[in-house]
Design goal:
Layout: E1 2-6, E2 9-16, E3 22-26, E4 31-37, H1 42-51, H2 53-65, E5 79-82, E6 85-93, E7 99-103, E8 106-111, H3 117-147, E9 153-157, E10 164-167, E11 172-176, H4 184-196, H5 205-214, H6 218-227
Parallel strand pairs: 2-4, 6-8, 9-11
Antiparallel strand pairs: 1-2, 3-4, 5-6, 7-8, 10-11
Helix pairs in contact: 3-4, 4-6
Length: 237
């Protein structure tokens, strides 16, 4: 990986076997990365980066000002989110198999005595994962029929920089575990976004046209995700 210095800004440059140059700005710090074809010389990449400086700085400012969640302590009456709604946590300690129950305005977390914070986080994360596993098959089936595409497999994992990914060759999509906390419409938008990649690899005119046709309000849902609080964690790359 090479690094370009543009004044005080550092740009990571990765060259690989691709046709087009791609620019990304990653939360939460606004790290900049360019993926470029191996045939492209570094001076051409530098000129491209300079031409995008205004856009890069705009994205970095947006990320800097974006609200962030405070670290979760897993204490009673702490705020947690599910399907875009705020719930108050209630920790119940008992000598039984851990479980999570959703009751009215509360998320009840049943754990054994002496369970530490990391273990409580793991139990709640697995509950979030199980909820996504219940809701995703119907969404994938619904949009598969509309698009006339087939998803062979889906998975859920923690992602630091993306809401989802698509493997076109294996027809597999991955969704970010954090989507369980976001509104259902945002989850559906990401499912559609990744499934459209089965029809169009890049975010070019055809991709945008398909998104407009299938989900006319997709830009609203995208912006809603971009406005939502970033998860608090130690980011590293």
């Amino acid at each position: 990986m090479e690094k370009l210095k543009l004044g005080t800004m550092t740009v990571d440059v990765v060259q690989k076997e691709i046709k087009n140059i791609h620019l990304s700005v990653y939360p939460p710090t606004g790290r900049v990365r360019i993926s470029a074809p191996v045939r492209m010389d570094i001076d051409t990449i530098r000129v491209f980066a300079i031409s995008k400086l205004c856009w890069i700085k705009k994205q970095q400012t947006k990320m800097k000002n974006q609200e962030r969640e405070t670290p979760r302590e897993f204490l009673n009456r702490e705020s947690h989110y599910f399907n875009g709604k705020r719930y108050l946590l209630k920790v119940i300690k008992q000598d039984a198999v851990p479980r999570v129950e959703l009751k009215h305005s509360k998320i009840e977390l049943y754990v054994r005595p002496q369970t530490n914070r990391e273990k409580m986080k793991s139990i709640l994360d697995e509950w979030y994962r199980s909820q996504l596993k219940v809701s995703l098959p119907a969404l994938i089936q619904k949009w598969g029929k509309k698009m006339n595409v087939k998803v062979n497999e889906f998975g859920i994992r923690k992602m630091k920089t993306k809401w989802g990914t698509c493997n076109r060759e294996n027809k597999r999509i991955w969704l970010n575990l954090e989507l369980a906390k976001k509104p259902a419409e945002c989850l559906e938008y990401i499912v559609v976004h990744e499934m459209v990649h089965l029809l169009e690899r890049n975010h070019k005119d055809r991709f945008i046209s398909l998104m407009n046709e299938l989900m006319p309000k997709w830009r609203f849902h995208k912006e809603e995700l971009n406005r939502s609080p970033l998860r608090h964690e130690n980011w590293s790359y």
